[in-house]
Amino acid sequence: MNSRQANIKLAAYSSISSLVEYFTVAQDRAEINKYTILDGKTTLTRYLDGDTVEFSSINLGILVKDIISILLENSSNNTDLWHRAGINAIIVIARSIAMSQLLVRNLHEDVVENLKQRARANHRSLQAEVALILENAAKVQPANFWNNTNKLREQLAQSKQLFSDSAELVREDRDKG
């Protein structure tokens, strides 16, 4: 990727309102560039071999050499070192989203073990699995669905309008088939 392409990508990523930081990995050397976006201004931080890359938005630090090592381990090509890893420009987008925390006490050990098994089966961490379960359970359900359905049935019955039985239509379709 040349510098013109990099600048175009930087401008495109900078327009994402929730973007806080992103990273590029150099193709020919142990170097990672961090672009931090704050109040519409982009700041560049360069990390070299031996440095710890700070992923501020997720409160994580990883050594440059460890990131490079992971990329090389997951490479399937066998040409030269950097091309083998397919390292050109790896972009990691980290968003700043306010999240709440929840502490659940006094869970039975069997419940925790079942959650761990479920997480493993779904290739997620225990925390990610529990978060997904809670998010799905807390989704807004259609307000009074059954009450509304019953009211509609009553209104249709009171209208004295005749409706055909769909079973006859289904039977006709089957017989044609």
Account of the 3D structure:
- 44% of the residues lie in helices and 19% in strands.
- The protein has helices spanning 3-14, 64-73, 81-85, 109-121, 126-137, 145-158, 166-176; strands at 19-25, 31-38, 41-48, 52-55, 60-63, 94-95.
- Strand 1 and strand 2 form a beta hairpin.
- It is elongated.
What would the keywords be for this entry?
two-stranded antiparallel ribbon, 6 strands, elongated, 177 residues, four-stranded antiparallel β-sheet, alpha+beta
Main-sheet strand order equals 3-2-1-6
How are helices and strands ordered from N to C? HEEEEEHHEHHHH
Q: How much of the residues is beta strand, in percent?
A: 15-25%
Instruction: Compute the number of strand runs.
Output: 6
Largest sheet: 4 strands, antiparallel
Poorly predicted tracts of residues? 84-89
What best-fitting shape do the alpha-carbon axes yield? elongated
Quick check: average pLDDT?
A: 76
User: Total number of helical segments?
Assistant: 7
Structural class: alpha+beta
Assembly annotation: single chain
Report the end-to-end length measured between terminal Cα atoms. 59 Å
Rg over CA atoms, rounded to whole Å, is: 27 Å
Helix content: 40-55%
Could you give a short description of this structure?
With 177 residues, the chain is α+β, with helices and mostly antiparallel strands. It has helices at residues 3-14, 64-73, 81-85, 109-121, 126-137, 145-158, 166-176; strands spanning 19-25, 31-38, 41-48, 52-55, 60-63, 94-95.
